[in-house]
Amino acid sequence: MNKRFNKVLIANRGEIANRVLACLQKLEIDSVVIFHALDARSPVVANATESAEVYGDSPTAAYLDIEQIVSICKSHKVDAVHPGYGFLSENPGFVTALAKEGITFIGPGSDVMKLMGDKIASREFVESLGLPVPPSVTLDVDDPALTEQVAKLGYPVIVKASAGGGGKGMSIVSGQDELEATLRVAASEAEAYFGDSRVYVERYFEQTRHIEVQILGDGTNCVHLGERECSVQRRFQKIIEEAPSPALTPEKRTSICETAVAIARAAKYESAGTVEFLYTHEGDFYFLEMNTRIQVEHPVTEMIYGIDLIEQQINIAANNAMTLSQGDLNPTGHAIECRLYAEDAFNGYLPEIGKLLYMHVPDGVRFDSGLYQNQVIGSAFDPMLAKLIVHGESRDAAIGNMRQALGELAILGIKTNQEFLARVIDSQPFRQGDTHTGMLEQLNLSEPEISAEERASLLAASYLADRHTRQRIDRTPHPYLNIGDWRN
Amino acid sequence: MHPRYLVNDESYELAPQRIAGEQTLVTIDDSDHRISLYWFDDHQAELVINNESHLVFIAQDEDKLFIHLNGRTHTIERLNDFSGSSALQDVDGIITAPMPGAVLTIHVKAGEPVTNDQVLMVIESMKMQLEIKSNTDGIARAINYEVGQTFDRGALLVEIETEETCEE
Amino acid sequence: MRRIESKINPASKEFTANRRNYHQVLNEFHDRQDKARFTRPERDIERLKRQNKMMPRVRLDLLLDPGTPFLEFSSLAANMAYDGDSPSASCITGIGIVSGQEVVIIASDSTVKGGAWYPLTVKKMIRALDIALENHLPVVHLCDSAGAFLPKQAELFGDRYMAGRIFRNQCLLSKQGCKQLALVFGHCTAGGAYIPALSDYSVIVEGTGAVFLGGPPLVKAATGEDVTIDELGGARMHTTVSGTCDYYAADEKEAIEIGREIVMQWEKKPKFSLQRETPEDPYYDPEDLYGIIPSDKRIPMDAKEVIARLVDGSRFAEYQPDYGDTLVCGFANIWGYKVGIFGNNGVLFNESSLKGGHFMELCHQNHVPLVFLQNITGYMVGKEYERRGITKDGAKMIMIQACSEVPKFTIMTNGSYGAGNYGMCGRAYDPRTLFSWPHSELSVMGSDQAANTLVTIKVNQLKREGIEPDETMLNEIREDILQSYAATSSAYYTSSELFDDGIIDPVDTRNALGISISASLNSPLGDSRYGILRL
Lengths: 488, 168, 535
Fold this sequence. Notes:
The complex is a heterotrimer. Chain B is mostly beta strands. Chain B has no helices and 16 strands. The radius of gyration of chain B is 22 Å and the shape is elongated. The two termini of chain B are 38 Å apart. Chain C is built from 20 helices and 17 strands. In chain C, a hairpin with a 7-residue loop joins β11 and β12 (327-334). The chains are: A alpha+beta, B mainly beta, C alpha/beta.
C-alpha cells in the first residue's frame, strides 16, 4: 500500500495546476509542469521542480498536444501525469499514449472514460442498470421520425452533443419550429469542438436542481463523499456550488448517493469521479452524465469531509487500491464555493479582459486560483479567475462567511462577477435554499445603484489617487494650490 | 477645466477649490467636501472625506481606476476633457466587436455592397459563435481582421461606407 | 514677530462711511473691468463661432490646471485710449499654472478687431515678456491675431520698445533657458509669424491656424503668385513639409491638450529658496480695508492698519519702531514667504529716508524681498530739511532701492506723488510686479498744488495776451485743469497706459503678492555688495 510516484507531470494550467502542485509538494513528490508562453510567469512554473514549455498553433492547442506532452514526460522521466480538469483529462487517446510509455495516468482507465464520455452510450449503460435517466430521443439528426419523437417528449427540450459535457455543446429548443435549425447548428458545433457530430434530445426540465455525487473508486471498491448542489448556473456553467444540498432529506441523500456508487461500481470506476443528476421539483432524480475527472468544485466536498481528493487520486493511481471505506467518511458543517469570472455579469455576462493589478484576499477563506500580480487576463483561456470557498457550522453560518468574504475580497484591474455573486448570495431564494437552474434568470439581477455619498467617495478617491492628479500636484509650486481656484 | 470621471456610465465632475494643510477642498454635485488620502502601501489607502474614514484598495491602469470601497469594487474611468469618449459603437457603418474572440469565417469582401443586417462575419469567443451583422446599407470599405485572427472587445472589425461617409 | 494691535473701530461712523464709499469705488471698478473683459460686439462673437474658434477666456480655462489661480495683468489696458476700441488692449496676459508649471500666458483676443495689435497691445505683450525675463518664467503664447493695426502703425513699429522688442524678448528668454510654447489658433502674419517660430514648441490648429511672413494678398501683390491660406501656411503644410510647427491639432481642444502634455514634459527647475513658514490667513479681516481707506486722500491712512490686513497672522516684526515714524518698516510673512515691508505714514523726512535705506540693506543681507505699500506725497521740503541734507538722504534711499539685489513688489495703496514714487519703488525702478488699488492716484504732484501752479501760468499767459481773467474765468480755468488732472492721475489712466500691471481689489492684494513672490523665485536672489552702512 505504499507505492509512490517519483515524479508527476501536471498537464494543465492556472488554478488546478496550482492545486495539484500544492498536493504534490505536500506529499513531497517531484513535479513537472508544462506551460504555454502566455503562462510563463505563472507561479506554478516557478514553484514546480521542473517545467517545460509547450508549443502550439494556439495556446489551447499547446495544452492538447498529446505527442508533445508524452515526449516531455519521457525526457523528464516522469512516472505519472495528473490531467486536472478540461484539456486532456477525459481523452482516452492520452491515457493510451501514456500507457504505451509505461506512464500512469492519474484518473480512470480509457475504457470507462470512453463509455462515460459518450453521453448516449453512458445513458444507455445507466438505463441498463435499471437506474433512472431523463426521457430523451437519440435518433440520427436526419431520421424523419425524429421530429415526431421529440414532439412526444414535449417542449421545451434540450439538444446536447454526445461528446460534449461540462456545460458545453447544449442548446434549449422551445418549440418545434426551432428544432431543425438548432439540431444543425448543434451538430456542426459538436463536430467542430468535440470531433463528433452526434447529438441527442432530452426533455428539458425547467427549474430543476443540479445535484452531483463525488465518488472515489479503485476498480473494485467504491465510496461516495456525499453530494454537491450546483444549481446556480449561467449559460449552463456553474457559478455557485455547495455541499451538502439544502434540498435533500437524509433518505433522498442516501438514495442518490447509493445510485451514484452503484453506477461507478458497475463501471468498475477507478480514481475520483462525479455522477451528475437532475433533481426535479417533485423529488425525482435522473442520471445526466458522469464526469471521469476531478471537478472544479471539488473543494466544497473537501471542506466538509476533511479529505484531500487530489491526494486520494494520486494514492489510488500509485497503488491501484483505495484505503478509504464508507465508514471513514463523516461530513461536518456546510461549504459554499463561488466562482469568480472575468465578466460583466450584470450585462449579459460578456467576458472582460484586463490585467490583474492587485489582489487582496481576506483571512479565513480558501482561495484557489492561479492568479499572479500583473497577469494579463485575455481571451485565450477560460475566464474563470478563482474559486472562493468558505465553510461554516451550518448553511446560514457558511452563507454569512461567504457574504463577508465577498465584501472583503478585492480584485483590481479587471471587472469580475464578484458583486453579482454577492447579490445572489443575498437573495431570498438562495438564503432559503430554493436554488434551481433557472434561478438566475428569475432573479434578473441588475447592478445595484451607487448612492450619492458613495459616489462622492469614489470621485474623491479617484481624483486623489489618479496618477495625473498626483503628478500635476507634485510639480505645482507653493502657494498656488493653497490659493486655489482664484481670479482677480 | 475640471476633472471628470465616469461612474456607472455617467460622467461626474469634481471641482478642486484649494488645498489647506493635508486636506483638499473640492466641490462635487454642488456641495463642498474636505478630502484626503493616506497611502499605506502602493495600493492600500485610507480615504478621509468630511471626517469619515474609509479603507480603500486602489489600482490604476492608464485612465481606469479600480477602487474597492465599502465591500464593492468599482471601475472609474478618467475622462479626457479634450477628445470625446470612444463611443464608436452605434455609428452607422462602424462595426465593432461586442466581445473579445477570434474570426471564424468571413462572408464579405472589401468593395462589395452590403445591406442592413447582412451577416458580415462569424466570430467565436468562449466556445460561443456569434454572427456579426451590418448596421446599415452601404459598401464594405474595410475588413480589418483575417480568419483566425484574435481581437479585443470594441475592435473595429468592419467599416462600411454609407452614402454620408462616401468620399467624393 | 508680534501681531499688530489694530486700533480701528469697525462700528465707528468713519469706518462705515469709508466702506460705503469704497463699495461704490469697487462697483465702478468691477463694471469697467467686466466690460473690458467680457463685453464684445455680438457680430464678433458670432464670427468666432462661425470660424469654429473658442472664446479666448474659454481657451484659457481649458489650458489652466483645475484648482489653481490665474493672476491676470492689466485687464484695463487701453481702457482710456483709442475711444475704447481695444478693450484689455486686445489681449490677455497673466501668470498661471499649466500642468503643474508656473507660466506667463500671453493670449490674443481675436474678438477685438480680429486680435489686431494696437500700440498698447504691443506694450502689454512686451511687459508680459519682460516679466517672464526678469523672473525666469516660461511662456505660453495663444496666437490668434490679424497682425498690426495699420492705422496706428507709426506708434507700434520702429522704436526700441515697440513690436520688434517682442521677438527680441523671445530670443533672450530662450537664451536664459526659459521655454516657450506657441498654440496657433489663428493667423500669425509677418512679424507675428515669429512668435511660433521663436517658440521652442508649437502646435497649430487645422483650418484656422496659419503662419506666414506674408499672407495671400501680399504674396499676390509681390510676386503674382496665387495661393490659398492653407497652402501657404496652414497646419498640414507646416507640420509635414516645412517643420515650422511641431504638432498638428484637428481642433482647438486637441491643441490645448497637446500643449498641456508638452508642458508636462518640461523640467521642473528647482526654485531659489526663500525663508518660508506655514502660511496663515491674516488675523484681521482683509475686508476691513474698505473701512480703513479714507474717502478723502487728504485724510491719513495708517500703514500699520493696512499691513495688518495683508500679512500672515497679522504679525509684524517692526524695525526701528521709534525712529523715522513716517516710514513703517519691518519683516512679515505673506503666504509664508518672509518679506520686508515699507509703508508710508506721511512724507519722508531725513530720518525716515535713512531708516528706509538701512532697512533695505538689512533685507539684502537677509535675502528677503521688498514690498512697498505706496501712500506718499513726497519728501519733506523746507530750509531746515535741506540744510540737514534731505536731498542727500533721499538719494541714499533711492540708490539702495534701485540697486536692489532682491526682488521688489509695489502696491499703489492711495497716492503716489513726485519723488516719493521713486524712493518707494515706482514703475521706473522695476518692481517685479506693480498693482494699483482702484482709488489710487499717480502724478508728479497733488492736483491742488498742480492746479495752483498751472492756473498761475495760464493767467500770466493770458495777461501777456492782454486778457485780464475775472473770477468766473479763473474758476473755469481751475476746473478744467482739475478735471483733466483727475482723469490722467487716476488708476484707470495709469492702468490704461500700462504704468502698472493692473488694478486689483485691495482684498486681492495678498494673493497677487503671493503669486508674484513665488514667480520671482525662479531667478536668483543676489548678495549684498557691502556690509551694512549705518545710515
